[in-house]
Amino acid sequence: MAVEAEHHLIVAHEVTNVGNDRTQLLAMGQQARTVMACEDLTVLADRGYYNGDEVLACEGTGVLPYVPKTQTSGNANRGLFTGQDFVYDAEHDHYTCPAGQHLTKGKVRSDRRDTIDHYRNLTACPSCALKPRCSPDTHKRVKRWEHEDVLDRMQARLERMPQAMLIRRQTVEHPFGTIKAWMGSTHFLMKTLEKVRTEMSLHVLAYNLKRMITILGVRPLLRALAV
User: Which of 31, 66, 85, 113 is the most exposed, fewest CB within 10 Å of its CB?
Assistant: First the structure.
């Protein structure tokens, strides 16, 4: 569900039988951009939409995503260093670890698509005083996707806009929660994906009509619809 931030109207929605939103970022962004007839659209999404391939696909489309990274590692809870503690230097193509050592890129890539580089320091790691907080392996390895710069730029945008996720919650959570409340404990009444999509479209239409009545009033809305 995509909601515009000024009037909180639902401008795009999709019903899918996929159990997560990881492949929906570009599709929802493009739908919203088309409906709003704007050249460039800023998209604020939660961590469920975080997907490097989707963020990369948004490049050059007019969809500018702001999606926080997913926190998949439990290192912070165990008092260990996390990926954020290793700072990338684009000019010299290396990482600097918390001990001030440089992790340089290895010659061999990994993963099936051959798109992941490994950075490590074979000399400094074994005798490092911070090793107990770093890695149980002989050497610490930091992985970097070949298009990681796209994600770095998005992270920089988020840091320049610290209120982004607050705006997202204030914008989308109310319409989503309202429609769920209307549905009640039964949620969707229809069966099959096509029929459920129709049911959802009716809920969205009803929500938007109620919002427009609140914003404009009944008579001005009727006049606008009659044009």
Answer: 113
